[in-house]
Amino acid sequence: MKKLGLQITVHNIPEGRFMCPGFIDLHIHAPQYSYTGTATDRPLMDWLDHYTFPREAQMQDLKEAKAQYSQLVQRLISNGTTTAVMFGSLHLEPTMLLADTLHQAGLRAYVGKVCMDRNSKDYYQHSLEQNLADTEAFVRHVRSLKSTLVHPVVTPRFVPSCSPSLLQGLGRLAQEHDCHVQSHISESLDNDAFVHALHPEVNGRDARLYEQAGLLTQRTVMAHGVTLTTSELRLLADRGTAIAHCPLSNFYFADVPLDVQRCLKAGVKVGLGTDVAGGYSPSMLSAMRSAVITSKAVRMMHIDAARRAPASCLSASAAGNDGSASSEPVPAAGSEHHEGSASSPALAHQREHAAAQQQRSAVEEAAARGTLGYKEAFWLATMGGAHALGLQDTVGSFRVGKEFDAIMVDTELREPFDVFSTDSLLDRFEKFVNLGDDRNVRAVWIQGGLVIWK
Ligand SMILES: Nc1nc2[nH]cnc2c(=O)[nH]1
């Protein structure tokens, strides 16, 4: 280093500590931080009206907003989050203040003013024109910070809150200003029912409305997507639109779990989000654990469905996934008798035997489905998020030429887990992912700058 004329201090990392890439939280609502850990008792549409809109509206008190946003940003960094994709609130000033707070703290962030022009109370919705004008003003404000870390995001809240004209206008703004887009898509059955009542012309499908408005782009991150159909997943993949998987909040709102492997197989980019306050933890370690548990639950559901499927379904599914006929079709139990058939006990026994065999195969097939482990969850929380944001050459892993967004993890604290001489470095890493918390995150760097040292 001296030869190169560089003044560099070399630090040796003590035994029991390691560095890893910082976490990328792909979906979080900043003005919901104050009630994180409470308000876990209502379904989505009710939860929004009852808790969320009133609390977000309180951000108009700029002193309160400053206090809450500063605390949130410190909490995120302390937990090892180095990039966050954030919803602000409906109002312009508090959301500009949020962007300023992120800029001052040095957190890498994509942040948006929330847009809503229907289906809320008057105190928490604006006209189409005001939403568009404020979004433009917000984009200009963030760009005026000249930050390489904080970027504006065009942010329609979700279809129930945004008229088609607003969606269209926001699609135009995103294109004109070359911005990222964030929203919610197909989050729950109550969302889908609401959208169906509003838009029977597109069969109530969020994806169709976003597509029509030009909001599905390669810079779009859509939260949830649990009820997306296969053709909608293909559409997202074609457009380069990513899904922010928010497994913890899905347990509360979603009705069905997101099958991450199905999304990845369809070519959709997937990362992880905390979805504070729908998700009650701001920690990405918690999001990783919930992602692993969700994928185990998806496998359980497949196994259970195979176990419960009546023989008639199994004989249909035994036709194979490609729809081709199986070599020995098994008439369904209780189906119309065929020539010289059920009267023979031997034939009935043969059918029962074949059906049981098919059921065993279906269960085995379901049990053989892969699930996410801690390594895959960690990948989603780092490289998955980086791909979702188009930052795969900038952050998410350690590679020459990337920016240094990193955390130093200490596993020697005896808190909140123990390590033993028998533990390898990989064991320590797995314990951190499964058992660790912010106490283990001893230092955080973003774009090479130290932002916390504890
Ligand atoms: N989880 C969640 N879903 C939403 N859908 C629309 N708004 C929200 C929100 O604030 N949180």
Strand content: 5-15%
- State the assembly state of the protein chains: single chain
CATH architecture of the largest domain: Alpha-Beta Barrel
> Which structural class matches the secondary elements?
alpha/beta
Q: Residue share in helices? A: 40-55%
Number of strands: 13
Average pLDDT number: 93
Number of helices: 15
- In whole angstroms, the N-to-C terminal distance is 28 Å
**Count of distinct structural domains:** 2
Rough outline: globular
Q: Radius of gyration over alpha carbons? A: 25 Å
The profile of the biggest β sheet is: 9 strands, parallel
Q: In CATH, what is the homologous superfamily of the largest domain?
A: Metal-dependent hydrolases
What small molecules does the structure contain? guanine
Any low-confidence stretches, pLDDT <50, length ≥5? 316-340
CATH top level of the largest domain is Alpha Beta
In the CATH hierarchy, the third-tier topology of the largest domain is known as: TIM Barrel
Following the backbone from N to C, one meets helices and strands in this order, namely EEHHEHEEHEHEHHEHEHHEHHHHEHEE
Brief characterization of the structure:
Pathway: Purine metabolism; guanine degradation; xanthine from guanine: step 1/1. This protein has 15 helices and 13 strands. The chain is globular and about 90 Å long.
Descriptive notes:
Pathway: Purine metabolism; guanine degradation; xanthine from guanine: step 1/1. Belongs to the metallo-dependent hydrolases superfamily. ATZ/TRZ family. Keywords: Hydrolase, Metal-binding, Zinc. Residues 18-299, 340-451 form the Amidohydrolase-related domain. With 454 residues, this protein is an alpha/beta fold. The protein folds into two domains: 19-300, TIM Barrel; 309-367, no CATH class. It has helices at residues 44-57, 62-78, 92-105, 128-144, 164-176, 189-198, 206-212, 230-239, 247-253, 260-265, 284-308, 311-317, 345-367, 374-388, 425-435, and strands at residues 17-21, 23-29, 81-87, 108-112, 114-115, 150-156, 180-185, 220-224, 242-245, 269-272, 406-410, 441-446, 449-453. The strands form two sheets. Strands 2, 3, 4, 5, 6, 7, 8, 9 and 10 form a nine-stranded parallel beta sheet that branches. The protein has a four-stranded antiparallel beta sheet with strand order 1-11-12-13, with no helix packed on it. Strand 3 (81-87), helix 3 and strand 4 (108-112) form a beta-alpha-beta unit. The longest helix has 25 residues, at 284-308. Residues 316-340 have low confidence and may be disordered. It binds guanine. Guanine (GUN) is lined by residues 29, 44, 48, 52, 157-158, 184, 187, 249, 253, 275, 278.
